[in-house]
Design a protein that fits this description.
Helix content is 50%, strand content 4%. It has helices at 2-13, 30-36, 39-51, 56-63, 67-79, and strands at 84-85, 91-92. The radius of gyration is 17 Å and the shape is globular.
Length: 106
């Protein structure tokens, strides 16, 4: 994160164009990452990316999952900004891909 910020200011100081912003999401540790990005939630995001925006009810029906569980998953994914709510209470995934980087040594 610090190296990206340093690079941005260097480019600005030199009058160079700034690269397109990259959205980044950081997790405190691997446990939090895996608790947030469960296989069911990843499946949900993939389905939304392909078929969305959808309501939670429609999403649950299409995925043949319990409404309450889908609702909980959607709310968690919205909280970390991986899923976006539309003005008409539907949900969408604006990302084409998620790249994960896991450092094994500091």
């Amino acid at each position: 994160m610090f190296s990206e910020t340093r690079e941005l200011f260097t480019r600005l100081d030199k009058g160079l164009p700034v690269n397109k912003p990259v959205y980044r999401l950081y997790f405190e540790n691997l446990t939090t990452l895996w608790r947030t990005l469960t296989p069911k939630r990843i499946e949900l995001m993939q389905f939304l990316r392909e078929h969305g925006p959808l309501s939670i009810r429609k999403l649950a029906a299409d995925l043949k999952r319990d409404y309450k569980n889908v609702h909980s998953d959607i709310k968690e994914l919205v909280a970390v900004d991986l899923v976006k709510a539309t003005s008409d209470d539907r949900y969408e995934v604006p990302w084409d891909e998620i790249d994960m980087k896991i450092l094994l040594a500091a």
